[in-house]
Amino acid sequence: MSLRELYQEIIIDHGKQPRNFGTLENANHVQAGHNPLCGDKLMLYVCEENGLVKDVCFEGNGCAISVASASLMTEVIKGKSTQEIETFFTAFHDLLTTGQEPSMDLGKLMALSGVAAFPIRVKCATLAWHTLKAALANDNKTVSTE
Ligand code: ZN
């Protein structure tokens, strides 16, 4: 299996069976996100304590890229500090917009590296992250990628 095929498998897997899908009862940050270009919508539930993301869940619907990206994000950020998350997002965003090898290990997020070749899908892949950023900043407005 080539790396490209492996990445494809991860996206299909997470798109069909998203991890951490549902609501979170003890969430102290709840944030809606919307990508009108594609119609992707999600609701993010974050339980944050002393700058650490203890738990995170999401629900919503959208294209396979947006769902897979949200699912992978929840796996990556659980247990991380808001500062580490910010660093991850910056590196991930750079990867998607430049297509160049990231300066840090992005783990499973690399599955979305192919999105760099499709600029219109970058918003699908970053919706969950923009929503997360707003959630942690306690910005209660619906996030729109527009
Ligand atoms: Zn989309």
Salient structural properties:
single chain; 146 residues; alpha+beta; Sufe protein. Chain: A; four-stranded mixed β-sheet; 4 helices; globular; binds zinc ion
Q: Quick recap of the structure?
A:
By secondary structure, this protein is α+β, with helices and mostly antiparallel strands. It contains four helices and four strands.
Q: What does the model show?
A:
The protein is of the alpha+beta class. The chain has a single domain (3-138), classed as Alpha-Beta Complex (Sufe protein. Chain: A). Helices cover 41% and strands 20% of the residues. It contains 4 helices and 4 strands; from the N terminus they run H-E-E-E-H-H-H-E. A 4-stranded mixed β-sheet has the order 3-2-1-4, covered by helices on one side. A hairpin with a 2-residue loop joins strand 2 (40-49) and strand 3 (52-61). The longest helix is centred in the middle third of the chain and has 17 residues, at 82-98. The termini are far apart. 35% of the residues are buried.
What oligomeric state do the depicted chains represent? Answer: single chain
Average residue-wise pLDDT? 94
CATH architecture: Alpha-Beta Complex
Largest sheet: 4 strands, mixed
Strand order of the largest sheet: 3-2-1-4
Fraction of residues in H or I helices: 40-55%
Ranges where pLDDT stays below 50 over 5 or more residues in a row are none
Order of helices and strands: HEEEHHHE
Distance between the termini: 37 Å
Tally of DSSP helical segments: 4
- The CATH class is Alpha Beta
Protein topology:
Elements: H1 3-16, E1 29-35, E2 40-49, E3 52-61, H2 64-77, H3 82-98, H4 122-136, E4 143-144
Parallel strand pairs: 1-4
Antiparallel strand pairs: 1-2, 2-3
Helix pairs in contact: 1-2, 2-4, 3-4
Bound molecules: zinc ion.
